[in-house]
Amino acid sequence: MDLSTLKREDVKAVEDGLAQVLAETIADYEARSGKTLQPAHIERLIINTYAYREHLARKAFNEAYRQQHPRFATGLMLDLCGDDVNTPRLEASAARCTIRFTAALSGTQTVHIPIGTQVAAGEAVFATVEAATLSAAVRQADLQAVCTQSGAIGNGWSAGQISNLLTAFSDGLEVKAANLTVPAGGADVESDEAYRKRILLAPESFSVAGPVGAYEYFARRVNPAICDVYVDNKKTASGEPIGGQVQVTVLIKNGLPSEELMREVAHSLSHERVRPLCDTVTVAAPAAVDYALDAELVLFTGTNPAEAVAAAEAAWAAYEAGRREQLGRDIVPLDIQTALKVAGVYNVVLHRLPLTVVKPDQWARCTSVRIRAASQQTEG
User: Fold this and answer.
1) CA atoms of 96 and 117, how far apart (whole Å)
2) Phi, psi angles (nearest 5°) of residue 248
3) What is the pLDDT of residues 206-231, one digit of tens each?
4) Alpha-carbon distance values, 185 to 84, 96, 142, 181, 230 (Å)
5) 192-285 architecture in CATH?
């Protein structure tokens, strides 16, 4: 049996159907009293109340039973399931980027940039985790910096936007700072669904990262922003796998991972207690397969176009939300048409959107969305 397809409501320790509880209670009372109950009997009112309370208690029993299993546990109970396999929930993480510091110096002038030097963009403040010294010979230094606030606040700032230098330097020397890379990797506390995947992968970690699942487990635990991982051998030009050459493809919630995050994952996977001795590990971002959604909705006569388009846009947002955090999801026009065929829509016409097979180390990225109602309606 494929347990991944098991529905939550099918996992029960006791039967909790209200109709069955009521029937069993009535039958028990009739057997004990020798009296056949009719719906209008006063006893039925008492039994109905008791059966309803019993029904609620049984549902609580079943939910408590489900909470013992990582496939169905939530909140604190999921944390306890993770504790059983030495897999704690990941705390909120901060975004990382590379900031370039420059100074026009001459002669023997020097400027020391200490660890913790702060540079801001709006309310997001980044602090360096490396130090450097600028001089007339070395007028610039590229340093790693981490946002001082956890979560998504530090993500997505364009190159050059993080430039407000908050740390003052002595001797009145002018130092400039600007980010070279777009910061990424900031995420809130790991969600139940992401945490659940890691707990189910945890037994793979009992070995070093030789199995595919072990590499995936160790990669996912680096940062809660990581939402999907694909592990495979590197390939030759002819497509043959290269033994001992492991390529790990990482996708994050905001899309493509930053260089800083990939270095962090590579460092974690290269630890002597993680990586098999003969493996060489490469961490890469997925290749983006871009496509544009241009959909025309043919409506039934009398359908309000604005309402139909709004419903289709909401349906597309829900459909895309389940895909944007996964690698290797093919672009299938029929699936998209099915998602957009909401109430009042007779047909969905997609323009310039062929069936596209997306490889496991690729990421289907929708770059633009245009959903509109056709000029003509139909009786169907």
Assistant:
1) 14
2) -110, 120
3) 876 678 888 899 999 999 999 999 99
4) 27, 6, 19, 12, 18
5) 2-Layer Sandwich (3.30)
CA angle (107, 111, 114) in 5-degree steps: 160
| CA 233/CA 225 separation, integer angstroms | 24
Neighbour-count burial for 330-363, b at 16+ CB within 10 Å, e otherwise:
ebeeeebbebbebebbbebeeeebeeeebeebbb
Distance CA 83, CA 195 (A): 12
Alpha carbons within 13 angstroms on the beta-carbon side of residue 135 total 6
Structure tokens belonging to residue 126? 């980044």
Q: Comparing C-alpha atoms, which of 280, 84, 283, 284 is closest to residue 198? A: 84
Phi-psi category of residue 107: left, alpha or beta, with phi > 0 → left and psi -120 to 50 → alpha: left
pLDDT per residue over 55-75, tens digit each? 999 999 999 999 999 999 999
Predicted TM-score (pTM) above 0.85: no
Q: 77 — phi, psi (to 5°)?
A: -65, -35
Q: How many CB atoms lie within 10 A of CB 3?
A: 9
Q: Provide the Cα torsion 9, 14, 19, 21; round to 10°.
A: -160
| Among 168, 41, 173, 161, residue whose Cα is nearest residue 103 | 173
**How would DSSP label each residue in 267-311?**
HHHTSTTTS-TT-EEEEEPPEEEEEEEEEEEEEETT--HHHHHHH
